[in-house]
Structure formats: C-alpha cells, structure tokens
Amino acid sequence: MSSNVPGIVAHRGFNGCYPENTRRAFEEALELDIYGIECDVNMTKDGQAVVIHDPSVDRTAMTADGERATGEVAELTLEEIRQLNFGTPEDPQQIMLLSELLDLLAQYPGKHLLIETKHPSPFGAKLDEEVARIVRAHGMDTGEQVHLISFNPEAIERFRELLPELRSFALMDPTEPLPVDVGQATGPGPSVRQAQAEPEALGAADQPSYVWTVNLPREMQWCRASGVDLMATDLPQLALETFAGE
C-alpha cells in the first residue's frame, strides 16, 4: 500500500465477523496485514482491568445455560465474569484481561494496540492508573506499539503524566461543539461522520488523526483522500480490499 493509505485499525478486534473484544476477534485481526487493533477497558469489582466496551455484561455475554447474562462489570469479580461466555455457543470465549491482550500483542511485534479506558468509571483515575501500570509491566510504555484514546480530557491528561512517551488521541463526542484544540493529546479522534461534516475536526496538518468507525468503502476512500493517519473499522478485511493496489 502507498504511504498515504490510513493505518487500518480493527475496532474491538475483527468486530464485523467475530464477537467484539474477544480473543478470537483479536487473533483473527492480528493475522491481517493491518496497522493493529483497538480495545476498550473497564474494571471489575476486585480491581482487574478487563477488555469490554459496556459498563455491563448484558449486551455481550451469556450464562453457561445460554441465557442472556446481566450485571455491572464494576459490581462483579473477575471470577464471576470468567463464568460467562462472550463468544458464541459453538466458540465460547472468556473475557480477556488487558494483561492477556498485551501478552497476545507481544507475539505480533509489528502490530499496534489502541486502548480506550471507558469513562465515566466508578473507579475514576484508578482505571487509567491500572492501565498504565499494566502497560509498564509489559515494557510497552516506550516505543510505538501502544496508543491511548479517550473521550475524557482528564484521562488524556493522566496518560500524558503516566505514559508520556506514548501517542494519545482525544476522542470527540459528535454531539458536542468542536473543540478548539485536543489538550494534552497527540492528535484528534473524531467519528467519520463528524470528520466529513467538519473537516477541521482532523486538526492541524502536523497532527496525526484517528477516525472511527469507518465501515463503508466510500468513507475509507475519503479518509485516504483527507490524509487521515489511523482509521478504525469493524471490517478490516473490507478496508484491505478497498485499498488493494494503492
């Protein structure tokens, strides 16, 4: 691919074909010729950083009996959540610890991981601090393999203090007025719809940009034409096909 093609980031793993934020989704994505993967992190009752988007398990997990699971992540222990199936009946998947995902990433030295800490969190700053501790414990607090993203400006500021050598992107709420700057972040992170409607959301020319969630070929081509640095998609294989030969 040419250098002006955006780095393809598999949103929540290969989310378009496999259950989101599961080991299966991440493994399948990491086997593709893409920039890397994106994940979401919440914290359990007993202080474990786990890879899950929602504050509850209701949407993404089933019980051992195949019923829809319920419960807030912050009110469940890791052992309790480990009993749930985040995959399919045919391919059951346990929730992943962030540390386990970093272990998996270490097997793919050319790939990258974008970590989003989910706020508001009942744990506040402790969530970001635990993520930083785990990243440092894996020796990934320097270099370019891990990036940090958040809608929360305070989280971005904490990342700058805790992990100053890592790139970060300030995610933008498309319902809010366009921010003048991205604060302590390396660059802006608008949705593709906001970026198309308000191209200034991509920031200054010398800033890298991260755009989410880009699932249509025409949106992918727009990102390429607009100089987007990184592009999150649920369909990384489609993105590869769209940019094939470029």
Characterization of the model:
The chain is built from 8 helices and 10 strands. The protein is of the alpha/beta class and 246 residues long. Strands 1, 2, 3, 4, 5, 6, 7, 8, 9 and 10 form a 10-stranded mixed β-sheet that branches. The longest helix has 13 residues, at 125-137. The radius of gyration is 17 Å and the shape is globular. The termini are close together. Residues 6-243 form the GP-PDE domain. Pfam families: GDPD. InterPro entries: GP_PDE_dom, PLC-like_Pdiesterase_TIM-brl.
Features:
27% helix; alpha/beta; 246 residues
Q: Helical segment tally?
A: 8
Strand content: 15-25%
- Outline, from the CA principal axes? globular
- Derived from helix and strand composition plus strand pairing, the structural class reads alpha/beta
Give the integer mean of the pLDDT values.
96
* Radius of gyration using CA atoms only: 17 Å
Q: Which sheet architecture does the biggest sheet show?
A: 10 strands, mixed
Write down the secondary-structure element order: EHEEHEHEHEHEEHEHEH
**Tally of extended strands?**
10
Distance between the termini: 5 Å
| Uncertain residue segments | none
Helix share of residues? Answer: 25-40%
Domain GP-PDE: 6-243
Protein name: Glycerophosphodiester phosphodiesterase
InterPro entries: GP_PDE_dom (IPR030395), PLC-like_Pdiesterase_TIM-brl (IPR017946)
Organism: Corynebacterium godavarianum
